[in-house]
Amino acid sequence: MSMLKFLLRRTLQGVFVIWGVVTVLFGLRAVSPGDPASLMLGQGATQELVERVREVEGLNEPIYVQYADYLGSLVRGDLGYSWRSEREVEMMVLERVPATIELAVAATVIALLIAVPLGVVSATRRGTASDYGATLFSLLGISTPNFWLGLMLILVLGVWYGIPYPSLSGSGSVPIGVGFVDLPTGRRAVGFGEALMAIVQEGSFGEMGLWLKHITLPAITLGTYFTALITRLTRSGMIDEFGKPYVTATQSKGLPGVLVRYKHVLRNTMIPIITVLGLQMGTLMGGAVITETVFNWPGLGLRLIDALGVRDWPLMQGIILFIAIMFVTINIVVDALYTYLDPQVSVE
């Protein structure tokens, strides 16, 4: 099967997955208690006004008609309007995407910078204190809930040691859009791209420093589980590669151990790591909900929690649908990349 046919088949499978997500979301809204029209208008609305809204929004139609209308709107790219803010859902979703992507990428970078060297050390020094320490770190990282870790980081660094961290309280900064405004000085850093442009155009590193100050603890919190996972995967993969004949052959030729370890063994170990990396990026996008809430990070997760609190169903559906689309897309890209990196993997 050619790569084009493989991508078409995976895309078709992804469409069915998205359709399943849409159906489940619509079903949950249909069976949830409460009248959507009353939720849109609030408690002070008259019954006449509620009935009028129900008629305008099509809420008095049979459930299958509402479902067909909803699918038709999605096909046209119309996610509807938020019941509370009366804004287009797609705009409310897209304006929070950069912050969530920044957090997911930062967590991934931190995980790779820590996990790969730690896994290499653990694999090459089996049975030593370094190996036991890396194994213990992996066990703790996988077992620790990220929301608890975030709260502990805030408690230890922000409260006990008094390290200033603007996003921990309202005294230093407040979240605006996809960035933060520093109230005392009026300085604003709107995401990584804005901070990078400040360096290129003005030679100023202040915005980048402010961005790093805000994103460090959330990224560590979100990336801890990922770090532990990659550490264990790197260790087990390298141990498996060390036992293969090509390693013995390269060592018998007199190649330095460092060259064998990093050019051959680690390179072959990176193939499954890349696969897990892609899959975890989708997981990080969806799993950032709690981390964003703990640190007041202005991403999709925080907006989803806010929409959940006021039962803004169109906004909730739009955010979850976007996360599902991102997850499916990342899976397809990773599958294609995996078959490209490893010719032994069939696209059948």
From TrEMBL:
Signal peptide: none
Keyword Membrane: yes
Taxonomic superkingdom: Archaea
Subcellular location: Cell membrane
Annotated TM spans: 12-31, 103-124, 136-163, 215-234, 271-295, 315-341
Keyword Transcription: no
InterPro entries associated with the record: BPD_transp_1_N, MetI-like, MetI-like_sf
Pfam family, any one: BPD_transp_1_N
GO cellular component: plasma membrane
Keywords of this entry: Cell membrane, Membrane, Transmembrane, Transmembrane helix, Transport
Predominant cellular place of this UniProt entry's protein: membrane
SUPFAM superfamilies documented for this protein: MetI-like
Domain ABC transmembrane type-1, first and last residues per copy: 97-338
Topological type in the membrane: Multi-pass membrane protein
Family membership: Belongs to the binding-protein-dependent transport system permease family.
Protein name: ABC transporter permease
Organism: Saliphagus infecundisoli
Upper taxonomic lineage: Archaea, Methanobacteriati, Methanobacteriota, Stenosarchaea group, Halobacteria
